[in-house]
């Protein structure tokens, strides 16, 4: 098998799992550049690389390399391919300039990426357009981690009282974190008692 075959198969599975080089590198303990070298074939894949990459990408080692190469590296017995956890993809729409989530209309599902694969309550949604703030490319799939509080510079889903959750850009104004939700809406102080929940966007995938 050529190094190009190997590079294409590692990169292919990373793209299928909707992971960036940095995200995969963080999971397996390698730098972004090291992952890139493994994908390009400029760095030889060792047995330990193969095992952790297969586990992180939720595939069998044979999906990354041919059976002969796998046998040489890790022997006859290769770990079975784990099933990918499912992830709810909720519907969204833009109302009065803000992107609002519709959790009650959540019939679509997909594979969960590793950063939220085992997180209870995690979900995702597709960006409906790019016409207003927050500016995210149309069609991007955003992953919501409900247990991570947002930080300045993050995107987040913010819920106030009985209102529908809304996508926001998080900024620091003086000593407070505020959510910028677009349209003509005023910034929302995340410390306001009306804010019942704020969840960080833990990653996104661009089709």
From TrEMBL:
Keywords: DNA-binding. InterPro entries: Cro/C1-type_HTH, Lambda_DNA-bd_dom_sf, TransReg_Diox_bact_type. One of its GO terms (molecular function) is DNA binding. Gene3D superfamilies: lambda repressor-like DNA-binding domains, Umud Fragment, subunit A. GO terms for cellular component: cytosol. Pfam families: HTH_3. It comes from the Bacteria. Residues 10-64 form the HTH cro/C1-type domain. The keyword DNA-binding applies. This is HTH cro/C1-type domain-containing protein. It comes from Telmatospirillum siberiense. The keyword DNA-binding applies.
